[in-house]
Amino acid sequence: MSAREERQALTPGTSLYDYALFRHGIEPDGRVPRKGYPLPDGPPEQPEPGLRDLTWHQAQAVVTDALTPLLADPDPVRAAEAVHRRVADLAMPHRMLRAHAARLALADEDAARRTARQLVRTGTDVAAVGVGMALLIRLGEPEDVPWLKALGMLHGLADAASAALDPLDRQAAALLVVRSRDRSGELTSLTDAIHSGDAEATRSALVHLPDELRTMWLGRRLAEAADLYGLLLARPQDAELLALTGRLLHRMADQRGNRSEILDYLPARAVYEALVRHADELSPTPEHRSLLLSIALDLHSGASVLLNWRPGRRRALLDALDRLLPDVVPEPVPGDRHADWFRRNRHLPFARAGDGDRPRWEVVVVHGAADSSAVETRILADGVPLVPALFGKGRGNPPEYLLDSGRLRAGSEPREVQLVEAYCTEGCCGALYVTIRRDGDEVVWDGWRGAVGPTPPPYRFDAAAYDAELARAERDHSWCWPARSTARLIAAGLRDRPDLASRWEIAPGWVGTDWRDPDTPVVQLVFTPSAPPPGTGGSLYFMWWLPNDDGPARDRAAAALRRMETEDPKAFATFGGGNDELAEALGYREPPRTPRA
Question: Is the C-alpha dihedral spanning 135, 218, 248, 300 positive or negative?
């Protein structure tokens, strides 16, 4: 009998839980597909026409009115049957329904929990079972784990199951996430090994994962699913496992996306301790030196500072890493980015750790990141890194924006400054702003806007100490590599001589290095014609990639500025888009998107 024939042999009233166990039982090797077992045959998901146009708040109100009275019924069987009927009437997409059900205000949590369990254990409809799983995100208890694990094997239910499992069984939740997010199949050997319970196979699959973003972006979930801490306890001197641990910790601490994963990794402090305690087992290669220095930077000024450290422990880990890393680093050979980055950043996490509660600005180039945008200004007040503490949705703005521009200087007039923009743009997930003002012999940061959570209190700094630290940070270019220096000098030249751009009716936009090639300076130029053709308006964007050569940064920047004195950049820069009507009227066409060498 084929798998399809066996699936059809189930009666129409079979619960999804029993169906999931059945599907798993007929698999010859017990392997769960990456996308989960297909759901039983049924009508395709078709939301009612009126529901397609509801706003988020309107849809929440509809779900609240429909389900809240039912979830207060003390009889879970009767309530579950009513929920089945009601969600069928709603005909709302399953994911939307689960999202709203998870936010319901509940008058009787015990009654809602009993109904949720009835739905999860006996429900036959995906939407109704999803409501039960959504409720168990808040109301679940250890006895619910087996049902959630089973339902998580079905296509489309892994996210809800993992969210409900997270507070109950972190490893089971992580395994569901890893399996369902395995887009390329590269994690299959790891998930198979974890399922088998073979610790040695799990360790082998883990250390042989590609050190690439497409796998390491699941850093915390990989560590949880494989029980990385347990593996370290059993193999404390395993050099391959220690190196993998360092890469995962550094990935978890990165602030590239949403909230730093390191803050949600429960054994983070213990894993840091285990890594540093046995870091001398790592061979002294440039890659390992850079990895340990990255860990030190995370512990010094990154999100890892916010872990609940015992007094003195984080300082002790930094001291141990300082002793382990070599003091003298030879000049790197051309093209050796590991050695060059290490030489520029060797003393950063150690030399400025004793400043007490003075404000500090540290420019950090995130090593190993796939793009040159991984340059952030880390701001510490009272030893606390403000961006991950108050916002946590992206890296701090780069030094060109905060330091080179003088935005952080405290003048006679208050100034609002954006410290960080969300990784997905401000229009999507916001940005963090603060107002900087001078108040007598103090500099005050207040008027916070965009912070996640409660509004932060005002920060007050001694004005002399503030000015001295800011001046030091503005002068410190030790973090900068040649192409970035060229870009900064070009930006400074355009600020000092605005006529270089205005004569061509352009204005400098973003100036930095190519995110795909950090050795190529890039200047973005914005063209806004003073007399646009009739019926048009807006602006056009041009990107100027400077040739990648070995000349001194100052000479390269000077040559670029001289060229703008006599040539219109629109003639040699690459058109990058903008107002369509304006572009068509002026004859500009966006080039085809092809990979750049």
Answer: negative
What letters, b where the CB count within 10 A reaches 16 and e where it falls short, cover 168-195? Answer: bbbebbbbbbbbbebeeeebbbbbbbbe
Amino acid sitting at position 236:
P
Six-digit token string for 560: 């670029």
Mean predicted confidence (pLDDT) in 130-151:
97
d(CA 277, CA 271): 10
Distance, in Å, from the CA atom of 135 to the CA atom of 486, rounded to the nearest integer, reads: 55
Q: Please give the average per-residue pLDDT across 59-81, as a whole number.
A: 95
Going by the DSSP 8-state scheme, the letter that residue 500 receives in this structure is H
- Average pLDDT value for residue range 175-190: 90
Q: Which residues pair with 376 in a beta bridge?
A: 364
Q: Provide the b/e sequence for 471-510 (b: ≥16 CB within 10 Å).
A: eebbeeeebbbbbbbbbbbbbbbbeeeeebbeebebebeb
- Residue 329's pLDDT is 67
Q: What average pLDDT is seen over the chain?
A: 89
Distances (CA, A) of 238 to 274, 277, 284, 289, 482: 11, 12, 15, 17, 38
* pLDDT exceeds 90 at position 48: no
Q: Give the C-alpha separation, 308 to 316, whole Å.
A: 15
Contact 245, 267 (CB under 8 A): no
What is the bridge-based pairing of β-strands 415-421 and 431-439?
antiparallel
DSSP assignment of 295-324 equals HHHHHHHSGGGGS-PPTTHHHHHHHHHHHH
Q: Which of 406, 401, 404, 405 is nearest to 418 (CA)?
A: 401
Question: Which residues are CB-contacts of 512 (< 8 A; sequence separation ≥ 6)?
Answer: 372, 373, 375, 398, 400, 484, 487, 521, 522
Looking at 426-540, list the stretches that DSSP marks H as alpha helix, in order from N- to C-terminal side.
426-429, 463-475, 482-496, 499-502
Instruction: Strands of 399-463 (E only): list them.
Output: 415-421, 431-439, 442-449, 459-462
- pLDDT for the residue numbered 340: 79
Indicate whether 7 pLDDT > 50: no
- Percent pLDDT > 70 in the chain is 91
How far, in Å, CA of 84 to CA of 64, rounded?
A: 15
Q: Are 247 and 216 in contact (CB under 8 A)?
A: yes
What are phi and psi for residue 465, nearest 5 degrees? -65, -40
Closest CA to 547 of 527, 521, 526, 570: 521
Cα separation, 226 vs 237, whole angstroms: 18
Token output for 329 = 């680093």
Question: What pLDDT shows up at residue 333?
Answer: 64
Mean pLDDT lowest for which of 251-265, 497-511, 552-566?
A: 251-265
For residue 352, the SS3 value is coil
Closest CA to 379 of 480, 470, 313, 299: 470
- The long-range contacts involving 176-184, CB below 8 angstroms and separated by at least 24 positions, are 176/149, 176/152, 177/218, 177/221, 177/225, 178/218, 178/221, 178/222, 178/225, 179/32, 179/34, 179/36, 180/34, 180/35, 180/36, 181/218, 181/221, 182/34, 183/214, 184/214
List of residues 6+ apart from 416 with CB closer than 8 A:
433, 434, 435, 436, 447, 449
Longest dimension (CA), the chain: 85
116 with 128: CB under 8 angstroms? no
CB 375 within 8 A of CB 365: yes
